[in-house]
User: Fold this.
Amino acid sequence: MSAPWQPLLDWWFGSGETAAEVASSQQSLWFGKQDSQDDYAREHFAPLVRQALAGELEDWTETAEGWLALILLLDQLPRMIYRDSPFAYSGDLRAQQLVARGLAAGWEQALAPLEQTFVYLVLEHTESLDSQALAIELFAGLLGQVSDEERPYFANTLDYAKRHQQVIVRFGRFPHRNQTLGRESTADEISYLKEPGSGF
Assistant:
């Protein structure tokens, strides 16, 4: 009998053999915005997301894979299932606490570098300069570990981390979340949001 988190990990990471293959096949799922993908996440994983948000899946942290899956349920899946709703960020605080606990214990070392990126993305998603700096440090560390074939993807993850940090340095928050969260945008933020790629 497979672990309860295995269907989620199988869907999220696909069947590629190398990090480059996995990233190539899964990027549209990870970073795209498609109704069909959101619908699939909602249909297959919404109950688990609700359990994770309620703190009911703590036993998953007994293994590194379960810890990773729980992070996905709190950080990535709400952004799909509750897209354009304040609930999209409802798992962020719990995900941050989970990542802090795991990093302190070294749990990420049991994961492949590509899997580790989704641990570090939780830090990148915060509106905290300290967390942004740590994300850059950790993504840079991964880049130094991977093969030449894998370097382009990991270099891109580091670049995105730096771009996220620049936004927090400039605004102290992510302006593209303002409308969803009911926050009033400043004139500078409104101008920024007209720029291509401002919403990541």
In short: Residues 6-193 form a domain with the Serine Threonine Protein Phosphatase 5, Tetratricopeptide repeat fold (CATH 1.25.40.10).
